[in-house]
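note to self — DONT lose this again. spent like an hour looking for the file last time. sequence + predicted structure for the chain T wanted, 270 res
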Amino acid sequence: MSPFNRHIALPRYGVKEAIFDGDIADLAGVRVVEKDPETHLVNLSTIGFDGRLCAMASCDARYQSRSLYAMYTRPELAEKIKLMLAILPLHLGIAVYEAFRPVSLQQTYFIAKAVELGKEYPSWSDDRLYRETSKWVAPFLDGCIPPHCTGGAIDLVLFDVATKTLVDMGKFGVLWGENPIAATLSEGLSDAQKRHRTLLMHAAVFAGLSNYGKEYWHVAYGDQMWGALNDRRAVFGPVKNEAYDPDIHTICHDKPALMKRIRDTMQSGL
């Protein structure tokens, strides 16, 4: 039984489990069968969704992604988004915060979250800080492939098509400080928040997507998380096309060096 059945009767549609309750860092051992590492991504903004798909920032300017390719995904994921829209009520659409994320930007997010946590918990060792940060921002070392860097993951919420406003699903994101109701199955949600999360999960599972349990807005297809939940090898590795990541030379490939960069940033006050 899917853990989401604690709240609703979740349809199966061939998905063994809907929600991954572990940490992204735990997925490093999931093998990847990459068919085309040089693949090109598709721009969701150029696909006709009858006005039912938009960038999240167009509903609320606070949610402007830092990724130049926030609306880009693998073609297979774009098809899954179409399936989600097919099952969602017609008055609702999908607002995308971020799909593809270059590894260099993933590193920026990881360092920022680590600095935030390090300042809040100054007694943590480097290992503890790395592990805790990895719960919120996927690491990019030790065999872990950040979901967004595969082009197979996407952060999305629902919006009202008529008013172009985001519906109430509870606080979005973990990049702007603590979020006590980020988890999909959080306690203390309002009826509206539960209803909208239920709609989102029904649509995601219908489309064959998996959800990261610590973030209600994060769904994916073909990455290591999806592979682990479906007892399969991951279909997608990182997008290996430097055209999508001009700052790839800034990536730190050594954990001690990364932690030193984080500690130096904390001390500098930046």
